[in-house]
Amino acid sequence: MDFIENRTFGEIAIGDTARIERTLTRRDIELFAVMSGDVNPTHLDTEYAEQTDFHQIIGHGMWGGALISSVLGTQLPGPGTIYLDQSLRFENPVGVGDTVCVRVTATEKQADTGRVVFDCRVSDADDATLISGTATVRAPREKVRRPRAVLPEVTLHSGGGRFRALIERTRAHDPVPTAVVHPCDAESLRGALMARDETIIAPILVGPRARIEATAAEAGLSLDGLEIVDVAHSHAAAERSVQLVHEGRASALMKGKLHTDELLSAVLDRNTGLRTERRLSHVFALDVPGYPRTLMVTDAAINITPDLETLADIVRNAIELAGSMGTELPRVALLSAIETVNARLPSTLNAAAICKMHDRGQISGGLVDGPLAFDNAISASAARAKGIDSAVAGRADVLVAPNLESGNMIAKQLIHMAGAESAGIALGARVPIMLTSRSDNAQARLASAALAQLHAMARRAG
Predict the structure, then answer these.
(1) Closest by Cα among 420, 431, 82 to 245
(2) Residues 383-401: pLDDT tens digits?
(3) 321 pLDDT band (50/70/90 cuts)?
(4) pLDDT for the residue 156
(5) Does any domain span residue 339?
(6) Suppose 48 and one of 15, 41, 243, 312 were both cysteines; which one would form an S-S bond, judging by CB atoms 3.0 to 4.6 Å apart?
(7) Is residue 440 part of a domain?
(8) Do 77 and 140 contact (CB within 8 A), yes or no?
(9) 44-81 burial: b if 16+ Cβ within 10 Å, else e
(10) Closest to 131 measured CA to CA, from 139, 121, 141
(11) 8 phi/psi in degrees, rounded to 5
(12) Closest to 237 (Cα-Cα) out of 250, 248, 225
């Protein structure tokens, strides 16, 4: 066990010194900004920082001051030290990647008060002074030796950051004409307008005009310049939206306030719907804190117990969507409870068959492996522990669930327990369908619109 031990007032001699070295990282800067609330763009905005006298992002001055406190509180004098006074001069900045040496030296002792004055200096690798000053502390009188505290791991996650990058990719394309089906609640209407404002979609609002206008008025939203196709109710809105696709007026659908099966009933109608040779499937795109890439989970909303051919289409749809998002060679993990083929567990047989279909060129455009358990699909250490040698294991872009229940639980657990941001889209019809939950906020609908626009443009180009 690692211990932390102090030096009492009686043990300290003039000239005693202690030091630490640290290398400033971008993560240090972000952590300090989160803790302190100091979001000065000099520390966080690369474009702004390049225009300053320093021509780069620099660390907070008090990051160095905190390191001085660290030496005083953990080494000299150490545990039991009470800070009384600190005077610092900030002479040169610390840049990302700079290694600093933090040194404190005892220069004065006051026996009657137990005070000790320290000279403090932070220097760079060339011994140039960055911070200098003095600190006065009350040194401990009693010896303290305690186990060093084990600090919690900290994960930095900018909520929706990957979705913002996705939205930036849409700037290269024109907005997609989109039938917004029954936008009769504030969130669905707001999401459509946000996507319009980001030039991702050109919305056509399909539903009861009076309800749409009342919703907009209540939410303080302007409908100026927007086309409204007036129909009586949600069922009619779904049917009319599908007709707009057939007429060439819409290249995508966005679900509003109606049940998913109500919309899909119109989409999958054998006579008037939007069927293709591909099975329709749903994909959750998730920005999960702590996971290094956007994670897709499929199918969690449409196909209850997919057979082999349906599962193959689910994989094909997900690979195409990942490619539209800019992933050149998506890694697809077919999930089961185990990572070996077992005749008593049908999901492992389906996974093995899908992998063979991929090997024979029946599924293309990505890397496919399975069966894989959830842990070794997303954790490299779990894959190593199981001895799995795979280009997919430990770094999957796509998780293919064996059935709807498991896929839905995976996605909802990541959203509600891991804090993942989500977007949802259905693929396999003639046009992409933004298929969000009625409880999703406008931001989720905006991200879903970005997915649909990128996919629609990729299909048009390819």
Answers:
(1) 431
(2) 999 999 999 999 999 999 9
(3) very high
(4) 81
(5) yes
(6) 41
(7) no
(8) yes
(9) beeeebeeeeeeebbbbbbbbbebbbebbbbbbbbbbb
(10) 121
(11) -75, 170
(12) 250
Question: Torsion angle, CA of 57/58/60/61, rounded to 10 degrees?
Answer: -160
Residue 455 structure tokens = 């996919």
Q: Are residues 191 and 325 in the same domain?
A: no
Reduced to 3 states (helix: H, G, I; strand: E, B; else coil), residue 250 is coil
Query: Are residues 217 and 351 both part of a single domain?
Result: no
Query: What total number of domains does the chain contain?
Result: 3
Q: What is the mean pLDDT of residues 352-369?
A: 96
For residues 271 and 288, state if they share a domain: no
User: pLDDT above 70 covers what percent of the chain?
Assistant: 99
Q: What global pTM score does this model have?
A: 0.79
Report yes or no: 12 and 77 within 8 Å, Cβ to Cβ.
yes
Q: Are 117 and 134 in contact (CB under 8 A)?
A: yes
Is residue 77 within 8 A of residue 49, CB to CB? The reply is no
Residue owning tokens 């490619």: 323
Asked if the structure places residue 334 within a domain, the reply is yes
Using DSSP bridges, classify how beta strands 295-298 and 398-400 pair: parallel, antiparallel or unpaired. Answer: parallel
Longest CA–CA span in the chain (Å) reads 96
Query: Of the candidates 259, 275, 291, which is a domain's last residue?
Result: 275
| Mean of pLDDT values over 13-26 | 97
* Sheet with 433-434, side-by-side order of all strands: 227-230, 201-207, 176-181, 252-255, 433-434, 421-427, 281-287, 295-298, 398-400, 331-335, 367-372
Write down the pLDDT at residue 462: 66
**Which residue, 322, 307, 396, 421, is CA-closest to 364?**
322
Q: Which band of pLDDT confidence, cut at 50, 70 and 90, is reported for residue 238?
A: very high
Is residue 369 domain-shared with residue 264, that is, in the same domain? no
State how far the Cα of 448 lies from the Cα of 444, in Å rounded to an integer: 6
**Hey, what amino acid is at 147?**
P
Cα dihedral across residues 407, 413, 415, 420: positive or negative:
negative
User: What does the pLDDT read at residue 230?
Assistant: 97
Q: Is the CB of residue 241 less than 8 Å from the CB of residue 253?
A: yes
Beta strands 115-123 and 129-138: pairing type?
antiparallel
- Residue 450 phi, psi dihedral angles, 5° rounding: -65, -45
Q: How many other C-beta atoms can be found within 10 angstroms of the C-beta atom of residue 400?
A: 29
Beta-strand relationship, 82-90 and 17-23: unpaired
Read off the amino acid at residue 460: R
* Element housing 41 (H / E): helix 41-44
Helix (H, G, I), strand (E, B) or coil at 89: strand
Q: At what angle do helices 161-169 and 442-461 cross, to 10 degrees?
A: 40
